[in-house]
């Protein structure tokens, strides 16, 4: 399918304008989802309009006014988007909360934001918040899922979302509602997005309608969508990365399918066949690991795959330029191998975008070799979020691309990237001191990332400023690039580098147990017990080889002297990763303190440097 220029009307100044444009487009299947029995359900733009108005009127009847905060704690689903647009329509402020947070963490954000109403997905979420709601000002909890009379007895303040929207699809037009929508101005606060807190306390970033819309306008020229775009909304909507792209694509007449569970994504890609795919690096890394595992199922498959990769590597620059190679060898490799990789995404994706964390050069090069150019971008919650992005015709592997046209970038004397533009947030909610630490009077925002900018303007991110490791010998080391190199091994799911105030670096490695089990079974090693598996001499030797390969690419002071293979695969659910799948370094180092201590047990006498 041919790509066309993405067009978001310049007249769009607020998120309410995007909703009005969606309604006026008079389209079928704007929002879609697959039920448990496999049946597809759809909402037309008219149904979306009616249901948004019904929710907005319910909020008004509960006393919600401009500037009031209303929270959404739910997985991605059509009700999330309806509620979001309804809150914004009234000039109220959306407070999205990750459903993976503990009840205590979620309640802290509800209390800090002063949210009066909470929309949530399930009885389990509602029950956990109800048990702690005395510390908040929550007046009502609205449940997306159905609940019975017994559950209702837990709290008389529970409301059923279905009671609000089930009979709303034929609501007559309401000029007063349209007038309410248009009262909102670009400088009005749209949302409080709480940072995921990899290095400390979670803070509510204040983003205005104008902040997010400016980022949409700045990002739009970099994206070439297909004539009838389709995307799957599966990354958490509390993350501004997913939310901004959903707004952008909806403004470009995209159909959006909602996926509430990550494990359903592969099947949904095959049935919905998206044309746009937005991912974080961990998603791409897992897809790569899956492809490599399948390609090693037999010696013949392995030989064909290696040959195809060699062919693809010779045509990477053509792929990164957004073109299709014309050589017969590439076409044969595409037919035998590359087309099957694209088929795993549904076979129709024209845009592959990555953000949220560094993609890793090896991963980007690997995908380019199999015919997929990933447009890696960079940004932060506080920048709404995109600062820069690679795109066809202006792509440089190993960088995060060129700044958006409406974003200024410069480097501080210590190498920290500082940015300014209309998409920069207003500050942190109730935290003026934290705001002053990163946002100056001239609008320059200190990102906290160490970067370089080459002669052509391409930005490279080295590491988080606060995560730089300083050895006892005074050497500064950026852990993320080294961890990314370790994760290029298909048997590695995650890695954490340790070394601050120590003589040398060590690493904690969390295996990709699916890939490790397949490898170990082929070696005749018992895989029934993870603790025994990671302690097996041949398994340790295999990982030692991988670490040695990475060390060959590093300076001596950066090299990993020792490592520990943990018996756990880190995840969002077990607490080692943030909702955007970034490493929580403090959590990991605290959890494995005894193992780290053992790695450094003879540090004072060790010759390792």
How does this model look, in words?
With 609 residues, this protein is α/β, with parallel strands linked by helices. The chain has three domains: 14-184 and 236-260, Rossmann fold, CATH 3.40.50; 279-417 and 447-465, no CATH class; 469-599, ANL, C-terminal domain (GMP Synthetase, Chain A, domain 3, 2-Layer Sandwich), CATH 3.30.300.30. It has 23 helices and 28 strands. A five-stranded parallel β-sheet has the order 5-4-6-7-8, with helices on both faces. A hairpin with a 5-residue loop joins strand 2 (31-34) and strand 3 (40-43). Helix 13 crosses helix 15 (328-344). It starts with a strand and ends in a 10-residue tail after the last helix. The mean pLDDT is 91.
Please render the helix and strand layout as text:
Elements: E1 3-5, H1 15-24, E2 31-34, E3 40-43, H2 45-61, E4 69-73, H3 78-89, E5 93-97, H4 103-113, E6 117-120, H5 123-130, E7 140-143, H6 149-152, E8 158-160, H7 161-165, H8 175-182, E9 189-194, E10 204-208, H9 209-219, E11 224-226, E12 230-233, H10 240-251, E13 255-258, H11 265-272, E14 276-279, H12 281-295, H13 299-313, H14 316-320, H15 328-344, E15 351-354, H16 361-369, E16 374-379, E17 386-389, E18 402-403, E19 408-411, E20 416-420, E21 427-428, H17 432-438, E22 445-453, E23 459-464, E24 469-470, E25 476-477, H18 479-487, E26 492-498, E27 505-511, H19 513-522, H20 530-535, H21 537-551, E28 560-565, H22 585-591, H23 593-599
Helix pairs in contact: 1-2, 1-10, 2-3, 9-10, 13-15, 13-16
